[in-house]
Amino acid sequence: MNNLVAQQNAVTELMRVSPLADELAERFARAGHSLYLVGGSVRDALLGRLSNDLDFTTDARPDRVLQIVSEWGDAVWDVGIAFGTVGVTKNGTTLEITTFRADSYDRVGRNPEVTFGDTIEGDLLRRDFTVNAMAIDLVGKTFIDPHDGMDALRLKVLDTPALPQESFADDPLRMMRAARFSSQLGFTAAPRVVEAMTSMAEEIDRITAERVQTELSKLMLAPDPRPGLELLVDTGLADRVLPELPGMRLAIDEHHQHKDVYQHSLTVLAQAIALEKSHEPTSEPDLVLRLAALLHDVGKPATREFAPGGGVSFHHHEVVGARMTRKRLRALKYSKEIIEQVSQLVFLHLRFHGYGGGEWTDSAVRRYVTDAGDLLTRLHKLVRADSTTRNKRKAAALQATYDDLEARIERIKEQEDLDRVRPDLDGNEIMRLLGLPPGPQVGQAWKFLKELRLDRGPLEHDEAVAELKKWAAAEGLGPTQQPQN
Question: Nearest-CA neighbor of 266 among 285, 249, 280, 288?
Answer without folding.
Answer: 249
